[in-house]
Amino acid sequence: MYDIAIGIIIGFLLVCIVVIFCAITIKLYIKKVKEHNQKEIAFQKSLNETILETQEQVLNNISQDLHDDAGQQLTYINFQLENLKLDSPELQSLLEPVSQSVSNLSSSIRSISHSLNNQLLLQQDLFKAIENEVERLQKNPKVTITFKQESDSKKVFSANEKIVIYRIFQEVINNAFKHAKAKKISIILKTTPQFSMTIIDNGKGFDKEKLNNKATLGLQNMINRATIIGYNLTVQSEVGVGTTIIVNETQN
Fold first, then answer.
1. Which of 99, 165, 170, 177 is the most buried (most CB within 10 A)?
2. What pTM value is reported for the model?
3. Res 13: pLDDT
4. pLDDT tens across 80-110, in order?
5. Digit-coded pLDDT (tens) for 164-186
6. How far is it, in rounded angstroms, from Cα 29 to Cα 140?
């Protein structure tokens, strides 16, 4: 009887040891997985930031080229037209529309150049920068664009927030023009209770499950950009109805 009791106790201790060993092993495994995931997240964030910096540098270079090359050439062409009008007054009526078109094109290129340059963007209020771009886009008679700002307080954005939110805004609007063929676009900015940017278009819409790789990559790029600054980006779309994209701060 005594030997049986000892055997039971030893068996119980062995089971306890096995259970403790398994618990420690599982705990170490979970810890290792968490560390791996944290490293993976840190690596992905670093990679996304590098891609973002590279994209911004490319956009800055394009902005500089537009300003220094195309802008100056248009200024020179307009200067020649003005001289030609002075030298040949009889051609003034014919040259005036051309001169006006060149001036309009020069103004558009200057606006585009400014919108691509993140240094100029950082000097502006984000809401004002978006409003200025909307005013430029509203000159397109084929699309109706509405802009609404709902704000009870003045939110201060970091440099990265300004750049990322503005670039997402540009890409969404470009997609609405180029791919969705939208006729109406609505932009709503809010700062309370937290910042959100909602862009709604009445374009073709799409089925996210049937997107091609290029389109999927574009959406993922915007989502990754938002993640870098701690924001969420959600997409709602229906074929034949339109698309709604919302960018908002992550709830704390």
1. 165
2. 0.62
3. 62
4. 777 777 777 777 777 777 777 777 777 777 7
5. 898 899 889 988 888 888 899 99
6. 59
Radius of gyration of the chain from its Cα atoms, rounded to whole angstroms: 29
DSSP states of the chain: -HHHHHHHHHHHHHHHHHHHHHHHHHHHHHHHHHHHHHHHHHHHHHHHHHHHHHHHHHHHHHHHHIIIIIHHHHHHHHHHHHHHHHH-GGGHHHHHHHHHHHHHHHHHHHHHHHHH-HHHHHTS-HHHHHHHHHHHHTT-TT-EEEEEEE-SS-PPPPHHHHHHHHHHHHHHHHHHHHTS--SEEEEEEE-SSS-EEEEEE-S----GGG--HHHHHHHHHHHHHHHHTTEEEEEEEETTTEEEEEEEEPP-
Burial class (CB in 10 A: 0-12, 13-18, 19+), 187: buried
Nearest to 49 by CA among 156, 164, 162, 157: 164
The whole-number average pLDDT for the span 122-132 is 84
Residue with tokens 């084929």: 142
CA distance 248 to 23: 40
Confidence of residue 198 (pLDDT cuts 50, 70, 90): very high
Residues 116, 122, 126, 128, CA torsion sign: negative
